[in-house]
Amino acid sequence: MENNNIKKNFIALVNACGTRDDILKMIENNMNLLLAYVCAVYNMETQLPILRFRLEGEDYRDAVMELDLRRRRAHNAAISGTAALCRIAAMRNVAPMFDGVFDMDDCAFDRNIIGDFCVAAVNALVMDRKKPVTIQSMLEATNN
Known about the structure:
By secondary structure, the protein is an all-alpha fold. It is 75% helix and 0% strand.
């Protein structure tokens, strides 16, 4: 899915739930899981080369295993978060941000599609901004 569709569908989902603070909190929590996965991958990729020079033997293996465990847990949480966001979108009759198909019970399920989606979602919501966010621009956007 293109970044602008992810952002557009995110805004539509939030707007569809605008009066339900409990659902908005669920959306926020699940969106944070997407970012947490991207951060876990980033941390692993930056720390691995450094650890090679800082640790040896079993200490190095333990540190690598811990990084991988954190990444895997974050990935599993992002998969659950993505599924929850899709269910909320379906309940509110809006297009989901994630347009792929995944089935956790299917052995052939490619977990990488969720990882790619996490990166695309973070990119759509953070990196694709055209101008800095100000309080004035937020107020203007709410009034439109």
